[in-house]
C-alpha cells in the first residue's frame, strides 16, 4: 500500500527531472565524467519505508556545477555523468501532517516534519566508490504518551477495589527519552452536570495572577507525582513502556500471614503489578510534613517510589473511579512551589478548609487524556489542543475495564501508537487491564 | 473537718427539738357512692406526717400544736387528689372527704403542665391525666411539653436526651440532668458503650442508630409512661438531698394500689405501643402493681436500621404495718430491646448492626415513722444491672491492613488482617450501679420559727463488668489499622475500669420564719459530696414569701456538681502506631511498626459545676394562676476533649535489599520527628444561661367548659471553652502547619410560646385540646473574636507566638478564619404550629384518643444565608390511643 503511494509520487517527480537532464546534455564536459549513485534511506526508526522520488542534489564545491537526481523505488538516485570533483550531497523532504501520515502510516504532532540528509566533501572520481549511502535524519518523531490508563478499579467485594490502579507511559518516539522528572498529574475541574458544560472561570480564583490566560494557558491539578532521578537515571527506549502503579504488588496473589493465606475472592479480576516500574507511596511525604503515615501504604522494595510533588488528599494513586479526573504528563524542570496554588474559583473566601490546586502551564504538557462520560458529562478540563475528544470505561466503576491506546502501525518491530490528540479516537477499552501488554 | 461540723450541727438541732403533737384531726374518706375508701393516704402538707384510712375509710392524724393553719392532702391511686386547708381553731369534729375517679367525667381535670405548688421551686409538674391525654409512648414525648420546648415527634431510633433551660442543647447540659424513679437515681455513669473514644469522642458506635449516648444523659425512650403517676421537672434550685446534677432534676413517681386491668394501645406515626397495667390488693395493707409495656418504633418503615423495639416489665409492691408506721415498697423492673442483628439495606449480608440492651433494676424503700425523736426515717436501696452489646459488622476489602498489637513503646513486626473479610466493631458492657440513702425528717419549732430538718447520707457505686472492646487481627475494624489515628487495643472494662464510689452527706432546714404579719419560707441546705477524690460543698437556698394577698415571691441560689462518668475517665491507653514499612512482594509480606504508648485514662477529672440562681413571682386566685421565673446559671468545668500536640521521635530505618525472596535488612540510622495529637478529657466547657419562663392558666370557665394555659420561655445561652481552636494550614506547601485561634463563642437565643385551650365536657367525658405554638426567636451565632491566629506551629513543629501586628499580615492569610466557622442563623420569621388532641371516654371503660400534630400542615419556608431553602415545622402527623379499662 505505502509502496504504491510512494511509486506514484516518484512517477510524478520523474517527469519533472527528465526535463532537467535534457538541459545537462547541452554542455560539453571537459573531463570524462563518471557515473554516481546515491542510496537514500530514512533514519533507523523509519528504515522500513523507502524514500522514493526524492530529489537528491550534488553540488560541486569548486564551481557552480550542480546535478539533481531522483530516488527510484529502491531509494536509489542515479547520476550518469558527473564531472569528478568535491561535492556536497544533499536531500530534503518536508512533510505536512497529512503527507506524513500518508507516507508512514501514523500521525505526528508536528505541523511540518523536515528530513534532511547531507554529506559535504564527497570526492567523486574514477578512483572512488561510485555510490554513497545517505540517511534522511529528522528531529525526534513522537514522544511520551499514555499507553494505558486503568482508573476504574476492580470489584469492590471480590477483587482489589482501588488498590490495583495504574497507568502506563510509552515512548512513542524514535529516540530514547529520559523519564527523570516526568510528572503525572490529576486535574481538577467543575463536576457540574447541568449540561452547559462550563468549566470554572479560573480567572476569578482568589489570588489569580494570570488574567486572560488563566483558563487557556493553564490547567489545575490536585495530585502530582514525579518520576525520580537526577536526569539520566531512567532511560526509556523507543517502543518501551513503564507501568506506574498505586501499589506495585501482585494483587492476584494471596497475602500469607503466619502460614494462613488470604486472597481476594476472584483474583482473575485484578492484576499483577509486581513488575511495575514505579509505585506511589506517601509514607515519607507524610512524615516529612509531620503527619502520620497512612494505614495501608504497601511498599514493594523492588519497585522504586515516585516523588510526591503535590498531594491534596488522596492516600495513594487513587484515580477517580467515576471518571471525574483528567490526566497529563509533563516534565518538571523547576521547583513546583514556584507555581501558584489557587482555590476553586467558586470559593468566595479562602480559609483553612479551602483546597488549593497547582497551576500548571499548558505548554509543558507532553500528553494529556480527558476522562469524561457521555451522559451528563462534566465540563472539560483539558484544552482541545491537548485532547480534542474524551474517553472512558463504559462498564463503569470497579469493572476492571482499562483504557489502552490503539497501535497506529508497527515499524521495524516498534509499535507506534496512535496519537491524534483525540482520545475518543486514540483509545479503546479492554475488559481486563494489561500492564505492559498488548491487545492481540 | 467539714464532716465534723455537719454532725455537730445535727446534734445541736436535735438538742433543741421541741416535739409537741397536740390535737387530732379525725375524718372519713368516701367514694362518690358513699362507700368508705380504705388505704387513702392522708398527709399534712409540708411535714412528713402520713397516715392511711382504715377499712371503713376513717382516719385520725395528730397535728402539731404550733401549726395555726395546715393543709391535708388526700390521695389514692386512680382518684383525684383532694387538698383541704384548715385553721386550727375551726377544724370540724369529723372531716368528710369524697374522692372522685380521676377520669374524663371529672369536673375539674388537670390536663396541662403545672407549676409545682408546694415550696419555692420553679418545678413543672405533669400529672397522670396530662400524660394520659398526651398519648405518649415514652417520657420523650412528655418532655416536649415543658415550657419553651417544641412539640415534635421524637426520633425514636435515636437516643433522646433531655436538656433544660438552654437555647443550645449540648451533652454537658443533658448529662447534668438527674433522673429519679421512685426516689432512686437512674444512673448513666457506668454506661461505657463508646467505641474508639480517643478518636471518635462521644460519637456512638452506630452512627445512624445511636441507641446509646453514654456521655449525653439518660435516654428518655427507655422510660415507658404506662405506670407513671407524676413527673416533676425542676431546673431550678433543688433541695440538698439531690446531688450529682448541674442542670436539673426529673422525678418520676409510680404507685402501687388496687387498679383494674388497663390496656392502652398507642399509635404515633410509624410507631405503636401497648401497655398493660393492673393493680392487685394482696391484703388490707399490701398492694402489687404490675405493668408490661411494648414499644415498636420505626421512623422509616423501609429502613430496618431505624427500628427500635423495647419491652419493659415492672412490678411494684407496697406493704405497710398495722399501725401505718412502717411502709415498704419493693420495685423490680426488667427492660430489653428486641433489636436483633440487622442488615444495612444497601449491602445485604455484608454490613450488619446489632444493639442489645437488657437492664434489670431493683429497689427497696423503707419508711418508718417512729413515735419519738424523728418524724420519719427512710432507707432506700437501689441496684441496677445491664447487659449492653453494640455490634456492627462490615465488609472490608483493603488488601490486608497492618495490625499493631504491641502493648508497649517500641518497634516490632506487625501482623496483617485478611485481604478481604468481615470486620467487627463490638462493645460489650455490663454496667452495674448501686445506690443507698439513709435519711431522717424532723419537724420542730424554735420560738416562732418552724423547722423541718431533712438530713441524710447517700452512697452511690458505679462499675462496669463488661468484656469491653476487643481488638483482633482476624476481624479487625479497619479503622483500627495502623495509621488511622490513635490505635486501640482490647480494653476489658471488667479488668481495667475500677469501681467508682460517690458519697454525700446533706442537711436541709426548711424554715418558716414569721416576719411581722408575713412568713418567710426559707429552705437552707448544705450538701457535702465526695466524687472521684474531689470534695465539693454545695450550699442551696430557696426563699419564698407571700408579699400581697395572692402574690407570692420566691428566689433561690445554689451550687451544683456533677461527677464525671466512667466513660469520661476510663478510655484506656493511647496507642500511636507508626508504620515504618509495609514491604510486600511476590515472596514475603513484612510490616514494621513503632508503637508509642501514652496514658489515656483521666482519673483526675474534676466534677463539672454550676451556680444557679432564679427568682420568681406567683399569683393565684380562684384557680387563676400566673407564674413568672427568671434565671441565670453559670455552668463551668464541663467535660470536653482537649487537643494536645506532642513532637515525638520515631526510628528512621534504612533498608538494604538482600535478595528478592527475603525482606530487606534494616538498620536504624536516626530518628524522625512526628507530630502526634492527644485528646484528653478535661474540664474546659462553660456556658452562661439566662432567661425567663412564664406559665399562666385559668380554671375551667364553666360557661364555656374551657380552660386556657399559656406557657413560654425565653432562653439565652452562651457557650465556649477555655481550649484553643486549632486549624490546619490550607496550603500543602506552606511553612506553617497548624494555627492556634481562640475558641469560637456561641450565642443562642430562643423564645417560644405555647397557648393551650382545653375544652372539657365532663357529662360526656370529652376533652378537646388545641395547642398553638408561637416561635418568635431562634438564633444561633457562632463567632470568633478575631479571625487571626495568635500562634502557629511550623513544619518542624516549633511553636511560634504571633504578635498583634503580625497576626493580620497577609502572609498568614492561609491561617485565618474567615468562613463557615462564623455562622449566624436565625429563623427570619415568626411562625406558628397548631396541634389538636381529643379524648373521649365511654361508659364501658373504653377511652379513645386522637391527635394531629401540625394539623394545618403549615410549613413556612425561608432562604438562609447560603440561599438554601429551609422548611420549618414537621409535616403533619397523626396518632391515636385506645384505652380499655376492665
From TrEMBL, chain A:
Residues 1-23 form the signal peptide. It comes from the Bacteria. SUPFAM superfamilies: Cna protein B-type domain (SSF49478). InterPro entries: DUF4876, Ig-like_fold. Keywords: Signal. This is DUF4876 domain-containing protein.
TrEMBL record, chain B:
One of its GO terms (molecular function) is siderophore uptake transmembrane transporter activity. Its main location: membrane. It comes from the Bacteria. It is found in: Cell outer membrane. One of its GO terms (biological process) is siderophore transmembrane transport. It is a multi-pass membrane protein. Residues 198-218, 328-358 are annotated as: Disordered. Residues 120-248 form the TonB-dependent receptor plug domain. Residues 328-338 have a biased composition (Polar residues). Residues 309-644 form the TonB-dependent receptor-like beta-barrel domain. GO terms for cellular component: cell outer membrane. Keywords: Cell outer membrane, Membrane, Receptor, Signal, TonB box, Transmembrane, Transmembrane beta strand, Transport. Belongs to the TonB-dependent receptor family. This is TonB-dependent receptor. It comes from Rapidithrix thailandica.
